[in-house]
Amino acid sequence: MPLSPEIKTIPSMIANFTRAGLTFELINALTRGETGRDMAEDGKRLLKELGKTSHVEINGTENIPKDSGGLIVFNHPNMDVLVPAFLTLMIKIKDIGKVNGKLLWGSEVPLFGKFNESFPVPVSIKFIKRFHNLYYKNVISVPMSKGRPDYELGRFSALRKAINSLKNGDFVLVSPEGHVEVKNTISPLDSFHNGSGGLSIMATKLRLPILPVGI
To answer: Alpha-carbon distance 23 to 31, whole Å?
Structure first.
């Protein structure tokens, strides 16, 4: 089974974080067990570096409501494209909607994987848990590897938090693919992760907008 695409982008992402002055700052915050950092604010700093190699243009921001939250559904291209696009979107949500964007984010770093079958990097679960706690206002942590003992319970908990966030007027962001696309092609429907359909139903029941985003 091949190495996951996420693994291959780690060195370049660390370099961008370092140039943005965030690497040692985040290491200190994680070491002290801090929580509650603002991803949009840190994202602005990181985008200054990412913007040197990636150009992001967002169209359709007039569809982001100013008086309610909603569900944003996006595809999952490679990380070099996704990260600057996602951070730009998070900043737009905060600037326009004045509410938090909350991303359903895998709670481990996949070492090997193809579509929804993945195997986490050893010890990455503990690290990602701390990282997600650091940005708990913007992240809903979701187990991705079916071999984890907390897989079912963790995904149920994530779904419940996402529904509560929708009810509280936040934006919830989810990628039904849940994995990097192969050759920037939308993945087969039968490879999508379970759960996003339930969020769509709940958003509809709450009469909240569902905004599809193509990256």
So the answer is: 12
- Asked if pLDDT for residue 185 goes beyond 60, the answer is no
Range of the domain at 153: 5-213
Distance CA 68, CA 164 (A): 14
- Please tell me the distance from the alpha carbon of residue 62 to that of residue 67, in angstroms, as a whole number: 12
Secondary element (H or E) of residue 119 = strand 117-120
CATH of the domain at 51: 3.40.1010.10
156 φ/ψ angles, rounded to the nearest 5 degrees:
-65, -45
Report the predicted TM-score, pTM, of the whole model to 2 decimal places: 0.81
Domain total in the chain? 1
**Furthest-apart CA pair in the chain: how many Å?**
46
